[in-house]
Amino acid sequence: MKNPANPPVPRRSWLDRVERVGNALPDPVFIFLFLILLLVVASAIAASAGWNAVNPSSGEVMAAKSLLSEENLTRLLVEMPQTLVAFPPLGLVLVVMLGAAVAEGSGLFAALIGRSVRNVPRAALTPTIFAIGLLSHHASDAAYVVLIPLAAIIYAEAGRHPLAGVAAAYAGISGAFAGNLIPGQFDVLMLSITEAAAKILVPDYVMNPLGNWWFTATLGLTALPLAWYITDRIVEPRLTRAGMPWHHPPEVAATAGDERDLTAGQRAGLRWAGAAALFVVGLMMAMALWPGFSPLMNESAVGPARWTPFYRSLIAGFMLLFLLTGWAYGSKAGTIASHRDVVRMMVDGMRAMAPYLVIVFFAAHFIAMFSWSNMGPVIAVKGAEQLKALNMPIALTLVTLLLMSSVFDLVIGSASAKWAAMAPIAVPMLMLLGTSPEMTTAAYRMGDSIFNIITPVASNFVLVLVICQRWSKDFGVGSLTAMMLPYSIAIGLTGLTLVVLWVTFQIPVGPGAPVLYTLP
Q: What's 435-488 look like in SS3?
């Protein structure tokens, strides 16, 4: 099957410049090394100048400390192992990954995605693909390598342009990355970074892992009809009118029907995985609500604080959910023959985390050294004083953070790396202005999502480009950016509007997570 050959979509030269600039940036490890060196110099200058501020919550005078002092140099070298393992996101991510590695290695994630798109009516393809993209945020890179190619095949078989399927899937997975319908490991990662930053000002601050749920779920539900309209009314007609020729790749033509079919073992595996999921959910709820025995409920607390143990246990809950459902699926699908296969998948999952561990080593030291320098709270107090003098509304301040995050996203692909660098300043500063850490995190995450699908420095941009080129060999960087740009604009404007509405009407950001915050 082949469309009439027409002139390719024109490329835009400025995208090539963005790509060259992005490729010229050093590795994130060296970005953190540069930030550490800059921090060391700044701390020495600030300490020698006697820079200080008064903590408005305690009246304590906070003074900047030089990282070249004897105390801090000793701390750096003696406590280096502790600095790494004390990095809050590290343990959380590794624990969840132990279970997620089994769910992914057993084929559960791929089967769930494939099963979800079978027998979908032609007119409902776009919302279905986009919704599955939203739900697949927890599947890590499995969504990119499974859902996006599968979406192209399904669109082609339905007589629609396959690249429109790629666009809908890519927009759901990456463009609406801040729109999680169901909280997962990424929420835990981002909010744990926020917690570490909030502790700079309030040492006993406890973060709620579900603290962004209401905001992210609303964004996802709002983005769905927008993506449906953009795909069916703007992107696909443009692909057809602009003459983007396409053809079935030979390997796809031969296996297109098989890729969507599940074996009897896989279907049985999904049933067992569903039973395992119900068991884990039931176990967690029972430990929170069982009369007379509720280890996940703080009976002595009042209000939302009663649920703090339950929220904190969600890390273990996600690990058990992925582990048991993956094991149950694999035992029936034939991908897990014994417990040794489960252990092997865990090992493979930890091996895949090696690049993350290298970056985390330097990110952990940057955040720790930032705390040792005492510059975070001083900057926060000074910045808050300046913002108060400007008398900017909280909504405008958060919009500024959102736009800053989106600009950084054009050149730095890792959301957690950017937040690790920005949170120690942004979170305490906005806490001093009366904004909760959860609301600050939601605004940052919204900004981080806007340009994910149009920047060449995004980790999976090249993968999506290669998938498109399987169907249209002349498809280039400019073509992919032009195809995805309408989604970026729509999702960005939607997120900006939601931030303003959330602050204006003080809608809770998540369970027990208000918009406003008052220092203790």
A: ECHHHHHHHHHHHHHHCCCCCCCCCCHHHHHHHHHHHCCCCCHHHHHHHHHHHH
At 514 the three-state DSSP class reads coil
What does DSSP assign to residue 147? I
Q: Contact, 148 vs 166, CB < 8 A?
A: yes
Residue type, 506: Q
DSSP state of 218: H
User: What is the Cα 467 distance to its own chain's centre?
Assistant: 22
Distance (Å, whole) CA 346 – CA 336: 12
**Six token digits for residue 507:** 């809608």
Phi, psi (deg, nearest 5) at residue 167: -60, -45
- Spatial neighbors of 360 by CB under 8 A, at least 6 apart, are 84, 87, 89, 90
Q: What is the DSSP string of 299-365?
A: TTS-GGGGGHHHHHTHHHHHHHHHHHHHHHHHHHHTS--SHHHHHHHHHHHHHHTHHHHHHHHHHHH
Residue for token pair 């300490």: 47
Does the pTM surpass 0.85? The reply is: no
pLDDT in tens, 452-501: 898 765 667 777 888 888 888 878 777 888 889 889 999 999 999 999 99
Work out the angle at residue 40's Cα, subtended by the Cα atoms of residues 38 and 41, and round it to the nearest 5 degrees.
65
DSSP structural state of residue 306: G
